[in-house]
Amino acid sequence: MRYLSKLDLKKFRGKTCLLRIDLNVDGNKKDSLRFKAVIPTIKLLLKNKIRVLILSHLGRPARIATQSVAGGPNQKFTLHPFVKILSNKLEKDVKFISLSNDFEKIKRVVKTSKNQVFLLENLRFWPGEARNDPKFARKLAILGDFCVNEAFPVSHRKNASISAITRFLPSYLGLRFEEEIDNLSPFLKVQKRPFALILGGVKVGDKLGVINYFLEKADYFLLGGGPANTFLRAMGLPVGNSLIDKNYESRIKKYLNSKKFLLPLDTKIKNREILDIGERTVEEYGKIIKKSRVIIWAGPMGYYQKKGFENGTKGIWKAVLANRKAQIAVGGGETIASLKLLGNRKLAFRNKNVFLSTGGGAMLEFLSGKKFPGILN
Q1: Which terminal residue of the chain, N or C, has fewer Cβ atoms less than 10 Å from its own Cβ?
Q2: What is the predicted pLDDT for the residue at 316?
């Protein structure tokens, strides 16, 4: 793999780097792990007198047709609010590059500006991005001399700025991306036992790959949130209006008789909807977490954002962070965001045995042994 850390950056002095990051975070969450993780790479490039043109998408804007250039982008999905945040973090003015189909003009703006850091408008306002269109990737490539991928959370997806662009420019993986690979790779060959996977969040579908990969290796699958509800529904148990993943209900039936899969002993319900795991479940899951020597966690245990339904996720965090002997990986935007329930997010960063991944689905797919379009050989 080609890493930025191994590159002699002197040969790119005065050049422009296209830095792909992932800004799919709330613009108000200035301390988001996903946001903070890319700052060291930007500072390294600037230290070596390299201009940085930041590329990212945000959400799934409805107006991604080319005519958006004329009609104007959907402001709900503009990246402009991140200019101020980036400027404050870097202590440098960041120049925003508005939506345009004139890439030669954008290139001139970048090359002639006094600024060293630029942020291009949401890539998904151009239709070629989501389609992994090589023609769009070629246009993007005009803007820089080399590209660096720091978007681990979306590098399991085929997007033009992630995959196709590597055909047209020298491409490298950034500092944080390298850290993700170094910290997650050992989990693919785990031998310590007991080994527990904690799976919550919304969908069970995005977790089937990691379930299948670790089915023989893992001792416990502790389920909460949507995955637990879907398992309960597949067992023929009533779940009312609870969130389930209907598309995968039939595909999980083969796991229903396995003693490795543990479901909530009690739940917290409102309006016939399961919104959290209960105290008995937190206690039982906590016992397993305490004795485990390998732990992978993706997805909160319930609707932690709603008062009265946060204790399940909070209890699991406490149990995970109390285990100082296990090899632990925690990923997912909402899972990491739920750290705020503890009051002091720095607690997790002090645990040397806990790796906080910037990716949720990406972490799970990497741990499923899948090859990423965004990882270069």
Answers
A1: C
A2: 97
